[in-house]
Amino acid sequence: MALVVPGGLRKWLRFGTGVGIVLDAQGLDVLVARSRPTGPVVAGCLRVENIDQKAAAEWGAEVVRFLAGCGAQHVAAVVVLPRAQVISRIVVLPGVRDADAPQALGFQLDSLHPRGDMAVAWAWQRIGDTSSFSVAIVQQELVDRYASMFSEAGIRLAGFTCSGSALYFAARLGDGPPPADFAAVRGAKTGIDASEVEVYAESASHPLYNVLFAVPAGRAVALARAETRLDDGPGPAIDGENAVLDWIDILPAWNSAPDTLDLSDAGRSRLALAWAAALVSACSHLGAPLNLLPLELRVQSSRLALVPPLLLGLLLLCLCGALLGEEAWLDGEYLQTLQQQIKRLGPAARRVEALDRHIADSATQIQALDAFRRRTRDDLDVLLELTKQLPPPATLNSIAMTRIEVQIGGESGQAEGLLKKLDESPLFQASEFTTQLTKNGDTEYFRLRTQRKREKAAAGGSK
Fold first, then answer.
1. What is the pLDDT of residue 303?
2. Is 118 helix (H, G, I), strand (E, B) or coil?
3. How many CB atoms are closer than 10 A to CB 226?
4. DSSP 8-class letter at 438
5. Residue ranges in the chain whose pLDDT is less than 50
6. 371-389: b or e for each residue (b if 16 or more CB lie within 10 Å)?
């Protein structure tokens, strides 16, 4: 995965805390690393001596306290087994898919190690995008013994790996890729034991090369360069011969480290393999080395494992929000559909409204005409009623009619009785004189006002 994720994106995914443990003949080194997009840091380093002479619970308690002090008690460690106990092979299988690799490598397993019928544990991994596969083989008894030892010590394990695989992935966790072709020697800056030299190299012909030589350092480097077809490269000279790099030179540099840590070239060189193991433990999601620990004994400690459930929970919350907002969304869609229908039917609706207004105006005019026609009949009824109520010799000189009242003026022999006669009529009420009566001989002149009743009665008055 480290080779698939683009470098710019891989930088922001370098996040986690890792624990690397390196076993050797004298004891073990424990290093805690924290990887961040801004760069990795060393949280702490512990050296435990003579673990074979102590109870696992004794030195395990010391390691557990150290991890707790670094805030890494929850992290499962990546353990690098001693190189002398691991057989590392590179097998080229052109055209073989990863799904078919276990079976293809299993056919060749007996030819890859000299253990005979002895039970072995083995693991494989494709090297980048090449057709080469890295295979590590170790005695099953050693894996069981180490797994039991760390279990008694109370240390959580993510896996057992070998130095070559750890270096390969750790070298690709920096801001830039490692050199295209190089050879690096473990402890080149500290002085190399002439009886045992471990070389790690990468070249076009050997994408991963890791060999433990039992010859002097200069001879080991020359053999490694010849086998990997490398020219002389940069780095400190060994025995006056070919120059090589130290393992720490191909790994990402840490940004900070505790003050108690030896930061000299020799001190940094001694921590190279533990630093590589801690880096791959912290960023296992970007590429994990091959793992010799049985699957059932591995512990998943990366907090990134919580990312899938968190994403699923976030997705569930989004779905719940979508369900809550569904009604509003449907209302919006319905409103939009209505608006489209209104826009389409608007002209026809406006024509209907115009016709309704025209019909209403016509109805009003018809009602006005009917009312006017009825008004003429009512006025004639008023005149007929006045004629009946004012018989000769009474005469009228003036009549003024409205829809509410009637004002009349005239002369009569007995004007005082006119008010009573008008109020008894079914057409009039509240009659009253508007001026004083005046007499001229036997004739009285009058002016009066009477209210028209709203309910229409038959003409002719009461009997």
1. 55
2. coil
3. 9
4. E
5. 1-4, 234-242, 456-463
6. eeeeeeebeebbeebbeeb
Strand partners, 209: 201
DSSP code at position 305: G
d(CA 300, CA 306): 11
Q: What is the pLDDT of residue 460?
A: 43
For residues 14 and 283, is the Cβ–Cβ distance under 8 A? yes
Identify the pLDDT of residue 457: 43
Backbone angles phi, psi at 435, to 5 degrees: -140, 165
Yes or no: say if 284 and 158 are a contact pair by the CB < 8 Å rule: yes
Question: How confident is the model at residue 194, as a pLDDT?
Answer: 58
DSSP-derived 3-state class of residue 189: coil
Beta-carbon contacts of 47 under 8 Å, excluding residues fewer than 6 positions away, are: 27, 28, 29, 30
Q: What is the pLDDT of residue 192?
A: 66
Q: Which residues contact 312 (CB under 8 A, 6 or more apart)?
A: none
CB 32, CB 254: distance < 8 Å: no
Query: What residue type is assigned to position 224 of the chain?
Result: A
Q: Tell me the residue ranges of DSSP E strands in 189-347.
A: 197-202, 209-213, 245-246
In 5-79, alpha helices (H): 7-13, 56-69
Model confidence, pTM:
0.66
Between CA 290 and CA 134 the distance in angstroms is 8
Residues 6+ apart with CB under 8 A from 191: 266
**CB crowding 320-343: b at 16 or more within 10 Å, else e:** eeeeeeeeeeeeeeeeeeeeeeee
pLDDT the model gives residue 29? 95
| Nearest one of 327, 2, 380, 339 to 167, comparing CA atoms | 2
Give residues with Cβ within 8 angstroms of 459, minimum separation 6. 381, 384, 385, 427
What is the pLDDT at residue 3? 46
Residues 6+ apart with CB under 8 A from 431: 418, 419, 422, 423, 448, 449, 450, 451
- What is the token pair recorded at 143? 């894996």
- The total number of residues shown for the chain amounts to 463
Could you give the residue ranges of the DSSP H alpha helices within 127-263?
A: 140-153, 163-170, 217-228
Tell me how far apart the alpha carbons of residues 180 and 463 are, in angstroms, rounded to a whole number: 135
Conformational region of residue 74, where left means phi above 0, alpha means psi within -120 to 50, and beta covers everything else:
alpha
Q: What one-letter code names the amino acid at 436?
A: Q
Residue 332 is predicted with a pLDDT of: 86
Residues 30, 66: contact at Cβ < 8 Å?
yes
C-beta of residue 212 within 8 angstroms of C-beta of residue 194: no
What is the SS3 assignment for 15? coil
Tokens of 136: 């590590």
Burial category of 29 from C-beta neighbours within 10 Å (exposed 0-12, middle 13-18, buried 19 and up)? buried
